[in-house]
Amino acid sequence: QVQLVESGGGLVQAGGSLRLSCAASGRTFSDYAVGWFRQVPGKERMFVAGISRFGATTLYADSVKGRFTISRDNAKNTVYLQMNSLKPEDTAVYYCAADRLLKRDRYDYWGQGTQVTVSS
Fold first, then answer.
1. Where are the beta strands (DSSP E) in 8-113?
2. pLDDT single digits (tens) 44-100
3. Which of 33, 54, 74, 114 gets the most CB atoms within 10 Å of its CB?
4. Would you say 23 and 109 are in contact if contact means Cβ atoms under 8 Å apart?
């Protein structure tokens, strides 16, 4: 079992930046790839970014490529999502998730989410 807690969400103006954190506890953190997802009310949860167990491989949705950066610090059991040049359409609840495999959906463990609101 892996427990995940997101933090760092908030309200920011368009063009601004936020850094989300995903703190993990439970099993060995480096055994898991981690993904970030986001969801807007009434829409499906969407993959944003993912990182492999030791950070060698990253994946991004086309909509965030070049603006968002995912990274991890296994010594701190934490994954980060640096979000720059934020747009109003980035407004969503952001979730982190962990799984044995790096992929774009169907992760085993999920956090509770953190709200990101980008004002125009």
1. 10-13, 18-26, 33-39, 46-51, 58-60, 68-73, 78-83, 92-99, 109-110
2. 999 999 999 999 999 999 999 999 999 999 999 999 999 999 999 999 999 999 999
3. 33
4. no
pLDDT value of position 26 = 85
Please give the Cα distance from 100 to 52 (Å, whole number): 9
Q: How far apart are CA 77 and CA 96, in angstroms?
A: 13
Mean local confidence (pLDDT), 37-50? 97
Tell me the β-bridge partners of 35.
50, 97
Q: Is residue 27 pLDDT above 90, yes or no?
A: no
Sign of the alpha-carbon torsion through 80, 84, 90, 92: positive
